[in-house]
Amino acid sequence: MNTAEITKKEKVISAAIELVVAKGFNKVSTAGISKIAGVATGTMFHHFNSKDDIIITAYKTVKRSFIAQTTSCQNENNVKEDLQSMWNNLIEWSLNHQDQFRYMQQFINSPYYSKEIMSQDDTWTSLLDWWKAAIKSGQIKDIPVEFLIKIFSTVLYSTIDFLIYHPDKKGEYLKYSFLMCWDMVGVAR
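Above: the chain sequence. Below: its structure as tokens.
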């Protein structure tokens, strides 16, 4: 694939994210995506089979970028420090990419999000392995990993939502929110 094709595909994904965040999934059309992207509808359908394909691909693209913020922090020797680095990186990324963060949130709470979509995507594999190793090391509570990740994600997403509307409180609430999360998932030493 040449650079021009990649650029057009990325424009379509970017336009889809922008429109979905502004209007919601149901009010976004392929014609609207094509117009905002500045890409002919035929060209768009060269890269994607349908609106659903665009929406799912956009989610996977955003999720990959989001999860990439955790990869440099995965070292099971000091789980609390690693988790705090992940926490800070994920919050920074989300504050700098608010439309992408909002898109991910909308997708997770939509009919598009399903076990089938999750099973097709191995983006979370290394992060899931990190959580399992952290449990095994005794530094994270030994409860089902899916539940731990849900707790972590819920507090993380709430913190991001709060900081989007209160950016002046970032320094103070980054620390407090992480400590609350750690109290829920970490093992006291």
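The longest helix spans residues 3-23.
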